[in-house]
Amino acid sequence: MEQSFDTKRVIIGPEGFKKVVDISVPKRVNLPTGYIESDKLAKISPGGSFFANDVEYYVFPCDTFDYVMHFLKRHTQIVYPKDGAYILMRLDIHPGKRVGEAGTGSGAFTLYLSMAVGPEGKVYTYEQREEFYKMAEKNIKNFSKFENVVMHNKSIVEGIEEKDLDAFFLDIREPEEAISAVREALKPAGHLGILVPTTNQVSEILTALQAHRFYVSEVVEIMIRQYKPVPERLRPDDRMIGHTAYMIFARKIL
Amino acid sequence: MEQSFDTKRVIIGPEGFKKVVDISVPKRVNLPTGYIESDKLAKISPGGSFFANDVEYYVFPCDTFDYVMHFLKRHTQIVYPKDGAYILMRLDIHPGKRVGEAGTGSGAFTLYLSMAVGPEGKVYTYEQREEFYKMAEKNIKNFSKFENVVMHNKSIVEGIEEKDLDAFFLDIREPEEAISAVREALKPAGHLGILVPTTNQVSEILTALQAHRFYVSEVVEIMIRQYKPVPERLRPDDRMIGHTAYMIFARKIL
Amino acid sequence: MEQSFDTKRVIIGPEGFKKVVDISVPKRVNLPTGYIESDKLAKISPGGSFFANDVEYYVFPCDTFDYVMHFLKRHTQIVYPKDGAYILMRLDIHPGKRVGEAGTGSGAFTLYLSMAVGPEGKVYTYEQREEFYKMAEKNIKNFSKFENVVMHNKSIVEGIEEKDLDAFFLDIREPEEAISAVREALKPAGHLGILVPTTNQVSEILTALQAHRFYVSEVVEIMIRQYKPVPERLRPDDRMIGHTAYMIFARKIL
Amino acid sequence: MEQSFDTKRVIIGPEGFKKVVDISVPKRVNLPTGYIESDKLAKISPGGSFFANDVEYYVFPCDTFDYVMHFLKRHTQIVYPKDGAYILMRLDIHPGKRVGEAGTGSGAFTLYLSMAVGPEGKVYTYEQREEFYKMAEKNIKNFSKFENVVMHNKSIVEGIEEKDLDAFFLDIREPEEAISAVREALKPAGHLGILVPTTNQVSEILTALQAHRFYVSEVVEIMIRQYKPVPERLRPDDRMIGHTAYMIFARKIL
Q1: Rg of chain C (C-alpha set)
Q2: Chain D residues with CB inside 8 Å of B202's CB?
Q3: DSSP run (H or E) holding B130
């Protein structure tokens, strides 16, 4: 039987322990203070809890966030939630939108797109490396609630099959080489979002966007700072993410 | 005739000039280098441009982001996009979800919620101050694509009418007093997000969440850093937002 | 009579009001709620206060920090205290050290260097633009406690007169062109600090440092976040400095 | 023979390897790609290098920064350089100043103070826990260039022996209990700096400072962001320090 969204559970335990488990697969789940069998886990209502050697564990249904951060198989750097959330907003991704993406990578952001455009929308995603394509396919099938993702196992530099897209997201090695193909695929005033790790790439892309008549609306980075949730000793965590990527947002002008 | 989403345009000009205009309302629109009449603006295709005294202006359709930042009438601090985007992700807001909110404020975040849950979803929003309620009503009608927002002109401390909500978002003066009512309205494992400006409030809320059996998943702040989009002299802006709010995310446990 | 350190006072008033006044110059000092004559100000002990229309103002002696931020005449961007403090530490500037600097600019950082190396140390500073040189000379004389600054009105690209310096600090347009001259002036293992505003310059300097056999110990930026000092509503300021400069630290290797 | 400043060397190797070695102590120094005997190391000029299995290592004299970060023995959290540098500037610590400190901790910041006030200045430091006091004493003797540190093995809450100090720095458990004693020891307009990890403590201290007639000049945190020094792929490090402490600066008013 195909695994699905509703069979995933997040187990949360002491000291930041977090594990996503598929309860449709019989398995012994190891915990910091013992274990639980997946069939026993299946009987706990979402929001409920259980004890393993006197330590309480909470059981929640699995969100996109949990799935992406703790279950999905990766062979590449994924788009982090802090960045992904902002990209969805800046690209104006909403139910019914038609959106393109390259590369698919592990499919983490493809899932976010799929969840955001809903049953009336469509996500077209391109990945040229075959092993990545196959793993992403599994990751997406394994979670997607809506049947709205079309996958292509090719590079967009060879051309994008779709036209009049509302938005396109680029997370590939040399995005400046794909700007021209993306311009073809976007509708007028369509949104483009690009994610790159280095400042040198930002400079190259800005030059390419000027050359291909895109209006650059924002170059930005998002920093996330988490706090220890202790009311009487409130303070940020000792360590934080220092950098994931720079984001460039642009719109196609005529 | 009722104003609608499709009649709004963003005009983008030199040195960060940005204006949202309703082209269904006859009006002279002032620009840094001249003006344009709204009926002339209406004839420019989205993604197109025009000149005012030799300076080019771009014309785009109006996104939720543009509407919230540059058009919506405010009498309160709004939820900033950097925070709003992350809240949508952490509360797992997707097409079809049923979500509660208090207070409505200017309706900025209500619109984000409305756009995210789509035609199959529902947003229930509460605002006790009448003048805020009325202005939010206009702001929401003026933009909302989906007929999915239910507004209440009352405080949630008096009770929330809906049950089994997927998520609730609190942006009110004393959120710790509403935790109990929110718990009643949420389904098991439902998501709660709270926005507060001060560290003292974070401490108070953490204490209240423990008392009402919520699992705190994250206390966090999001910082956004924008760069000047000049390829050969790339650098962050001189000034940035130093603080908007702290966010607390929690889930109802049984 | 020459103005000196001991004749400067900082007046601190409501809502962040801060003014540095030279009490040796007869003058009416305007305040948000009135004024005070400088001779009356001279009679107030450091740490004392006075009232202007029922509002209290505090009077402090003038620190290097106050002088640099609120009195010194500028025609250029100065080195900010958050950066200056870190540079002093990373260049290991201490009493007795011999340090070079280019360009002098408004002399703000020259003063910090002068204060740090003390009576046994020496600061050699170069500024090629004559009007800057003259203004810096006044700014430095006006405050310096120690007679330890030697000023040159020339570019270091033409050669640095001193040898065996402990450290050198570069804050000029094209620092990569001065690396070779600085290498000549530094003692083996000597410290080099460079301040530049753009990422492109950081890349160019890293390449130049490799070419001239410097060991790069750190590329860094310092962010400062100030809080409103209200105990029951503690929170960061709404706005903060987004960027001043990147700093590169290196050591001369043989 | 007593160890001294001039006998310390920093060895810098591949992938961030950094080690401080005392060349006056005969010892085999282990390296990622082999080892070097300390007597052989002693013969390498500062700024020179050596090879261990074809990998080059650089040898530098040991700075205060290197000593504090890589040699000094700690049993407590030390004041980080990013914070320490800013504290020195805000407390206006310069050659000739008389400064107090509590607690001494591992002596890291005591050393910074000692290096900053120079031969004409004085540092008075208090530590009540005997084992900390003894370790700090060793750490300070082991490095200090100037004979300007006076150590006390007692709590300042019992009283501070010195009077008319230019500045005082507090890094103790409950600084709010020491404010009164510090006020006695400071000269009018004298500087006070306090370091605390939590927001709750900031609130408590602000209340105590108001009660003891201190003017609060700044509540602040310093964030440091390091970049990978690769010119063609410039980007910040993946991880950074998320939090060390909040700093509160105040001045004694009459």
Answers
A1: 20
A2: 199
A3: helix B130-141
Q: Is D137 annotated as a binding residue?
A: no
Nearest to A122 by CA among A165, A161, A91, A87: A165
- DSSP-derived 3-state class of residue B100: strand
Same fold, A5-62 and A67-252: no
Q: Which of A108, A63, A113 is nearest to A91 (CA)?
A: A113
Instruction: Answer yes or no: do D47 and C253 touch at CB < 8 A.
Output: yes
Contact C120, C95 (CB under 8 A): yes
Do residue C254 and residue D95 have CB atoms under 8 angstroms apart?
no
Query: What does pLDDT average to in each consecutive run of 10 residues of chain A (254 residues)?
Result: 67 93 94 96 95 96 91 86 97 97 96 97 97 95 92 95 98 96 97 98 98 96 98 98 98 95
* B203 chain-D contacts, CB cut-off 8 A: 199-200
Q: Please enumerate in sequence order all residues whose Cβ is within 8 A of that of A30, keeping only pairs 6 or more positions apart, or say none.
A: none
The C-alpha atoms of residue C28 and residue C36 are separated, in whole angstroms, by 6
Check: CB of residue A148 under 8 Å from CB of residue A117: yes
Pairing between β-strand A165-170 and β-strand A98-102 as defined by DSSP bridges: parallel
Q: Check if the beta carbon of residue D199 is closer than 8 Å to that of residue B199.
A: yes
CB neighbour list of residue D101: distance below 8 Å, 6 or more residues apart:
D109, D110, D113, D123, D124, D125, D126, D168, D169, D170, D171
Q: Indicate yes or no: CB of C47 within 8 angstroms of CB of D218.
A: no
For chain D, which residues make up each domain, given as ranges? 5-62, 67-252
Task: Please check whether residue C221 is in contact with residue D225, taking contact to mean a CB–CB distance below 8 angstroms.
Answer: yes
Measure the CA–CA gap between B200 and C231, rounded to whole angstroms.
8
Smallest CA–CA distance from A114 into chain B, residue: B94
- Residues of chain C with Cβ-Cβ distance to A205 below 8 Å are none
C235: nearest CB among B198, B232, B237: B198
Q: Does domain C67-252 have CATH number 1.10.760.10?
A: no
Run means of pLDDT, 10 residues per run, chain C, 254 residues: 67 93 94 96 95 96 91 86 97 97 96 97 97 95 92 95 98 96 97 98 98 96 98 98 98 95
Residue B73 pLDDT grade (very low, low, confident, very high; cuts 50, 70, 90) = confident
Express each pLDDT in D37-64 by its tens digit.
999 999 999 999 999 999 999 999 999 9
CATH class of D5-62: alpha beta
Say how far apart CA C18 and CA D12 lie, in whole Å: 46
ipTM of the complex, rounded to two decimals: 0.95
Token pair recorded at residue A93: 């991704």
Q: Which residue has the tokens 């801060």?
A: C18
B127 belongs to an annotated ligand binding site: yes
- Distance (Å) from the alpha carbon of A242 to chain B's nearest alpha carbon: 12
Residue C191 pairs in a beta bridge with C167, C251
CA distances to B178, D67, D84, D109 from D71, rounded to whole Å, are 52, 5, 17, 14
* Of residues B74, B84, B141, the one with CA closest to residue B106: B74
**Alpha-carbon distances of C136 from B67, C153, C197, rounded to whole Å:** 49, 11, 21
What's the rounded Cα separation, in Å, for the pair C29 and C36? 5
Between chains, do A219 and B226 touch, taking CB under 8 Å as contact? yes
Partner-chain residue, chosen from C232, C241, C244, that has the shortest CB–CB distance to B200: C232
* Bridge partners of residue C235, in order along the sequence: C228
Which residues of chain D neighbour C143 with C-beta distances below 8 Å?
Answer: none
| Numbered residues of chain C with Cβ closer than 8 Å to any chain A Cβ | 199-200, 202-203
Give the closest of C198, C225, C238 to B234, CB-based.
Answer: C198
Cβ distance A94 to B64 less than 8 Å, yes or no, reads yes
Interface of A with D (CB under 8 A): 197-200, 225-226, 232-244
Contacts of C244 in chain B (CB under 8 A): 238
Residue D59 CA to its chain's centroid (Å): 23
Which residue in chain A has the smallest CA separation from C200?
A200
Cβ-based contacts under 8 A for chains C and D: 195
pLDDT of A125 reads 98
